[in-house]
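User: quick one, fold this
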Amino acid sequence: MSDLDLPKGVTVHRDKLRIAFRPPNEKNQWRRTLGIPPTKANIKAAEQMLNAIRRDITLGQFDLSRYFPNDPSLKKDERRLEFIIREHFIEAKRGKVKGSTHNTYSIRAEWVIEHFGHIDAANITPTEAMRLRDDIIKMSPSTEFASFRLWLVRFAITRAVRSLVIESDNFGRMLDGVESKSKALTMEGLHKSIDSTEVFTIDEAERIAKAFNSESRKRLVTFMFWSGLRPGEASALRREDVCLPYITVKRTLTQTGAEQSPKSGRARKIYLPSSARLALELELQTHDSERAWVTSRGVPYTTSRLFTQKHWKQTLDKAGLAYLRPYATRHSFASWMLKAGEPESTVAAHLGHTDTAMIRKVYGKFIPDAEPVWALDDPTKKEVFRKSMISRT
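Assistant:
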């Protein structure tokens, strides 16, 4: 049977039917063998498939895998770093971390995809892998960002190898050691150490509160400074969670408005300092909402954003202070408590950290240097201790 007997776009190649089409943004036609002999019924089926492909191309819905799921070019796409990161990092993390954290993961992953997604991870050479590492480090605004970006590449590549998408990890040792360091990083500023330039003093906090025109805003910012809550935890706080001088932090609101458990994954009961306690008590007297804090219009917050960036900046300008993001209220609280001599374990429990390691890492510069003192060097304590011990004789 000659090509003239076939519909346009359908040919015979090596005794098998083949179709030709041109996907959008492609200069040349794609030819795909159907693997079936040129019978009358098969020719009709080939024509129907070709018409369906052309329709999908016109509508912008063409998906090669729908028609040729085993096409070699698809396997090549699976080996590109873009596909590996999307499938083996972004999708792999979905449901394993909180929604807000996954959103941040995705944003950071998209940066890597945008700049390096074209790389063939299955055939990368050691030289190319090292160049990738150097480029990520050079293009990152900080070492924390670089570590995180390298870690997500390592995470995705490792999972791709385990899933047999690529046969081996050709990145070599370029990422060794990065994952263990980056696992300790979180999206809370990547847990980098902060110093006195990144927190407000108590006097500055009072100036900020005074700079707000609204009394409700004054109470809210005072509560944020003296409670140490995350913005999402404050916006999600309910009346039922309040039993002054204690509150129970059971939930948080994300940037998209979803309500979920706190970052630690469990509720915590905390004792409020007097300033936060008074601000909250006065606020609850001004409305009947089930939520503890409401907007200037008297309605509950729907996201974790308590202050718009514009309003917050205007307030700081009015107070004569340099810009620090609203989250600095939490950092400021932690720095004050540690400077005042509160135990690291107390501050960690209040903030919702599982242990003191993160307190020392982030706020270590605010922990006073302790003078070495042995309690047993005090004669009075030593005598009390001696009498409290039970003799074996």
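User: anything notable?
Assistant: The longest helix spans residues 40-59.
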